[in-house]
Design a protein that fits this description.
Blueprint (H helix, E strand, L loop, with lengths): L1 H20 L5 H4 L16 H5 L4 H15 L3 E12 L2 E9 L4 H7 L7 H15 L1 E5 L7 E3 L4 E5 L6 E4 L8 E4 L3 E5 L1 E2 L2 E5 L2 H4 L1 H20 L5 E5 L12 H15 L15 E6 L12 H13 L3 H4 L7 H34 L4 E5 L7 H13 L3 E2 H7 L14 E2 L3 H4 L2 H14 L4 H12 L9
Antiparallel strand pairs: 1-2, 1-13, 3-4, 3-8, 5-6, 6-7, 9-10, 11-12, 14-15
Length: about 450
């Protein structure tokens, strides 16, 4: 640790010395080394351009990630309150607190956003620029600072302040790290830098956008008649020059006879008037750059960790394929990001609110109805699930019933306790309470007209 501290300090001094000796050194030159009081990273200057790419396949790939994370519950617990199972803690998380200042802030971060909006924009910023910054002035609200506003840092072995310059202002100002929460994807080449998934697949993104621009230019600037109709020649071998009215008459006649999807594939009859009909412009398939668009799309999706199933681009081949895609998305894309964000919130927010806290986002779990049913059956067979727990698994929004309080489903209870029978018995007992036997027999005799002993009604 002492060696690393010395290395950072030496690098800081060397850059300060370089600036003193070369007064014309620009920020771009200073950005080549580790951060410090003079820090200006080159990747920070790219944030404005990176945020502009939030469209097309980039948006389609980021959207399911940001939406899934934004919908996950956030918990706050106090260290030392872990629930124990034997000698190991359950999930290594403290007992969640029912209420806390952090939960209140996350539920209503500021006047412009709700909780979902804050988390969505945070994740989108991470995917696009590799970093996201929250500012908590006075611990009264959470203001997400766009990465394009961030122009530098202060500090060597730790972040001491973040230098921010909003658009339209010439002067940058510092935000104390004690009032901030900083998220970033690490850069292996720079402990103060950040690398975004967008940056990692930048070539594919540029290629995709170039294809889109090219196709748009073709539609906007091109002339798009799909076919050529050649008029036949006269007896002298000369093709007649048609007037504008004659051209419109021929086009109208062809459209009236052959236009529309219901006439697709019908043969076109050539006679003395029409000599030939040939295709002129490219078809939609030929404008797809020979399947290169599909390859570029796959590279972008793989860089962000999504798939066609997740973004809704194609139907799964089977229930199993859909379940595997969802499980892969949760395990290898969403949950690692949830862990990063949870550790960042604990690292930055816990000291701000007195310390001794752990903040975590609940891990995402792929929903598989068939697997959930199998688990419920297994638990019921072993008698380790209550009737209330089983009813909560049903997609029917069943209300709580006191009849099922304390009832275990399945196991040894399967042969001795029928919950439906018990429920009906309880209802009958409640209805008949307070009536003696003679009164009940009289009611039954009157209701069903039971025969008398001599055989008469």
């Amino acid at each position: 640790m002492n060696a690393l501290t010395k290395a950072f300090a030496d690098a800081d001094r060397s850059y300060a010395s370089a600036k003193a000796s070369v007064s014309t050194a620009t920020d771009a030159v200073m950005a080549r080394g580790p951060s410090g009081p003079l820090t200006h990273h080159s990747d920070l200057s790219k944030a404005t351009e990176q945020l502009k790419h939030f469209r097309g396949w980039v948006y389609s790939s980021i959207r399911p990630i940001a939406q899934r994370i934004a919908g996950q519950p956030i918990h706050v617990g106090r260290l030392g309150s872990e629930r124990r199972l034997g000698t190991k803690s359950a999930g290594n998380h403290p007992e969640p607190l029912d209420s806390h200042e952090i939960l209140d802030l996350l539920a209503d971060p500021n006047d412009l956003m709700v909780s979902w909006s804050l988390m969505f924009s945070t994740v989108a910023s991470l995917e696009l620029t590799g970093r996201s910054l929250w500012w908590l002035p006075g611990k009264k609200q959470i203001l997400p600072i766009p990465s394009s506003w961030l122009v530098g840092f202060q500090g060597t072995t730790r972040f001491e302040a973040f230098k921010v310059r909003p658009p339209g202002t010439a002067q940058a100002f510092d935000l104390s790290a004690d009032e901030c929460c900083y998220f970033s994807y690490p850069d292996p080449a720079d402990p103060h830098g950040a690398v975004s998934p967008l940056q990692a697949v930048g070539g594919a993104v540029d290629a995709d956008e170039a294809m889109t621009v090219s196709q748009t230019a073709i539609f906007r600037q091109g002339i798009h008649p799909t076919h050529v109709i050649r008029v036949g020649k006269d007896s002298e071998g000369i093709r007649p020059r048609l007037s504008a009215a004659q051209q419109r008459q021929i086009i109208s006649a062809v459209r009236q006879r052959y236009a529309g999807v219901e006439r697709s594939g019908e043969p076109l009859i050539l006679d003395g008037l029409i000599e030939d009909v040939s295709r002129l412009s490219n078809t939609v398939e030929e404008m797809d750059y020979l399947q290169s668009g599909k390859m570029v799309r796959e590279r972008i999706q793989q860089g962000f960790g999504t798939s066609p199933y997740i973004i809704g681009g194609s139907e799964p081949g089977s229930r199993a394929a859909s379940a595997v895609a969802s499980q892969h998305f949760c395990d290898y894309t969403v949950n690692p990001k949830l862990r990063l964000m949870s550790e960042c919130m604990t690292e930055w927010l816990s000291p701000m609110f007195g310390g001794g806290l752990r903040i975590w986002i609940e891990p995402a779990v792929a929903h598989d109805a068939e697997m959930a049913l199998r688990w419920a059956e297994m638990l019921a067979r072993n008698g380790v699930i209550t009737a209330h727990e089983l009813r909560r698994l049903a997609p029917l929004d069943l209300p709580e019933e006191r009849t099922f309080d304390g009832q275990l489903v399945g196991g040894k209870n399967m042969n001795t306790t029928n919950l439906i029978e018990s429920g009906l018995r309880a209802m009958v007992d409640d209805a008949m309470a307070g009536h003696d036997a003679d009164e009940l027999l009289a009611r039954v005799d009157k209701r069903f007209s039971l025969p008398s002993p001599n055989g008469r009604k």
